[in-house]
Write a structure and sequence with these properties.
3 domains; single chain; 221 residues; mainly alpha
Length: 221
């Protein structure tokens, strides 16, 4: 790895370790546990080729390692960056949409659920074996189901997705949702991101000249 690649790796590795250590009930400052965990994860990511960053000597291995740690860190941006193969990208998107549906319903929705519901699509046993055309149909179908739950609860899908990312519980009652701090943060953040209408005075010469004349009239002689 180059120094830049190493820097990106250690950033992801640190984030992934903090998340996994908490899930496993291990102190994140336990150096020996941390090192053993890192070696095991690199070993898994490279298919047993190496367990050290020093052994990551090709672009292919680098991509696999970075994607693995990005997934462990639950870093959507880095996952998208390091997912280059269409099948893996589609699988990741489908899992994300199924996770949203699980969150909204309180019932686990996985690939087996998709295969059972969309029988007419004749989906393969593994999501990684799903052709792109079928994967797109599954994404749309699952997304439609999620949006229906949002519509029933009077929630904008973008607000719901951010609320989940913040760790908020699904709340269908609007009054209760309005007083929940994480939901307040999610809705406020998405409201701030909405594009507001912008007027280009340069595109309207008459408006530009009128504004200029008004500005000059206000200035002292």
């Amino acid at each position: 790895m180059t120094p830049r690649e190493l820097g990106a790796f250690w950033t992801l590795e640190k984030k992934a370790w903090a998340r996994c250590a908490q899930a496993m009930g291990i102190r994140s400052n336990d150096a020996s546990e941390h090192e053993a965990w890192r070696h095991e994860q690199i070993h898994q990511a490279t298919g047993g080729k190496t367990q050290s960053v020093k052994g990551v000597t090709t672009a292919l291995l680098l991509g696999k390692v970075m994607l693995h740690f990005a997934t462990l860190a639950d870093d959507d941006r880095e996952v998208e960056k390091w997912t280059s193969e269409p099948e893996r990208r589609n699988a990741w998107v489908i899992r994300q949409k199924l996770a949203l549906l699980s969150w909204a319903t309180g019932i686990e929705h996985d690939w087996n659920y998709a295969r059972g519901i969309f029988v007419q699509m004749h989906l393969p046993e593994s999501v990684l074996d799903c052709p792109s055309d079928l994967a797109q149909k599954v994404m749309m179908a699952v997304d439609t189901q999620f949006r229906r739950y949002c519509a029933d609860a009077g929630i904008r899908p973008a607000d719901a997705e951010r609320a989940k990312a913040l760790g908020a519980p699904w709340i269908s009652d609007k009054m209760e949702r309005d007083f929940h701090p994480l939901w307040q943060e999610a809705c406020a953040a998405n409201l701030d991101r909405q594009e507001r209408p912008r007027f280009d005075h340069h595109a309207n010469p008459q408006k530009r000249h009128a504004d200029h004349a008004q500005k000059n009239a206000l200035q002292p002689a």
